[in-house]
Amino acid sequence: MLKEILKNKEIILASGSPRRQQFFKDLHIPFKADVRPVNEVYPQDLEGTEITDYLAKLKAEAFNDLKANQILITSDTIVSNEGIAMGKPKDTAEAKQMIASLSGKTHSVETSVCFTTIKTQKIVHSSTKVTFKELSEEEINFYVTNYKPFDKAGAYAIQEWIGFIGITHIEGSYFNVVGLPTHLVYKILTELASA
Length: 195
Fold this sequence. Notes:
The protein is of the alpha/beta class. Helices cover 36% and strands 25% of the residues. The protein is built from 8 helices and 7 strands. Strands 1, 2, 3, 4, 5, 6 and 7 form a 7-stranded mixed sheet that branches. Helix 2 links the parallel strand 1 and strand 2 (32-33). The longest helix has 13 residues, at 182-194.
């Protein structure tokens, strides 16, 4: 459906995430990937979706050459655990520490998506609560050693082994936890194409 109504638009996905790119393919949305370097630093007084809103918009600022028919999509995801924003781990030790801090608790996964054209900009976000069982040190070590989750906020992917064995409950969009609130992407692109 979107492919037809977006036929006069060019979608630019500013994400190197294979998961986000696969979502666009599965949604039948033609796109080109264009990732530009951005220093992802945010003011320390921001929390939760304020952070992801800020970073999604910041990533859009790297594109000052949009054409009239282009829709730029930028996004950012964090894991928010007891008021602490968790991005991607820098090494094995930090990945293990991050997962251990999520063990036996409920945290939030926050994703913001920014849609930018030469005339308008709209930011939407989604929040999903995720609960882990108590994870053993052996389970955490197994996951980090075998899956190397260094490109994932909070150091885990719900669709991998740790999600299979460790997640006991979610509240909100599953796809938001994977990396993109696809229902919001569909909704906003439909609105923009009809405008």
